[in-house]
Write a structure and sequence with these properties.
The structure is a single chain. By secondary structure, the protein is mainly α. It has one domain. The chain has nine helices and no strands. Helix 1 packs across helix 2, helix 1 packs antiparallel against helix 9 and helix 2 runs parallel beside helix 9. The protein is globular, with a radius of gyration of 21 Å. It starts with a helix and ends with a helix.
Length: 180
């Protein structure tokens, strides 16, 4: 036992700087990957994609799915599902990503079907902890279906102050869920 402890100590002393470097490198790599997803999503959002599409687009490279088909599927979910201001588009986009993720990592269809709702519920809980709600109308505080609501949306820069923050939160929460 004494020999094992001393051998472990010598190994740790000899390689600790390499281990620390690896940990730092891994952390930086993960941070860069996260930044790339965030940049991809926000760029997509400010260049014609809705909130749901933007979250989905951020995961195309990681999950290797058909981008065009996924973006078309997410098209109707922006503005709180068809601009009805129900569940936030960033949230519904994240739900789609969870489904795609689970189809890639969980082989057994029964297990996938059981695990996906648990992940969606965990996502919703984390999102609501950050934003107090997942409902577009409450997040924005205005009805974007009306001219007055659209004016409030523009004048108060809600695309920047609310929508982009919901997209960012969705990506951070998804990455956290995928680490578990």
């Amino acid at each position: 036992m004494w020999y094992t402890i001393n051998a472990l100590k010598r190994y740790t002393d000899k390689y600790s700087s390499k281990i620390k470097s690896f940990i730092i490198f891994t952390g930086l790599t993960n941070r860069l990957i996260m930044e790339k997803k965030l940049t991809t999503a926000i760029d997509a959002f400010y260049n014609g994609n809705n909130c749901a599409q933007s979250v989905v687009k951020a995961y195309v490279e990681k999950l290797k799915f058909d981008e065009e088909l996924a973006l078309e599927m997410a098209l109707g979910f922006g503005g709180g599902m068809g601009k009805m201001q129900k569940a936030c588009g960033a949230v519904t986009g994240a739900y789609m990503v969870i489904g795609i993720y689970n189809s890639k990592v969980i082989v057994d269809k029964v297990q996938r079907k059981e695990e996906t709702p648990h992940m969606i519920q965990a996502f919703k809980k984390a999102f609501c902890q950050r934003h107090q709600t997942d409902q577009c109308v409450h997040l924005l505080g205005c009805d974007i279906r009306t001219e007055a609501g659209q004016q409030i949306f523009k004048e108060n820069h809600l695309k920047d102050k609310v929508c982009s923050k919901c997209i960012e939160s969705s990506i951070v929460i998804l990455d956290d869920l995928f680490k578990r």
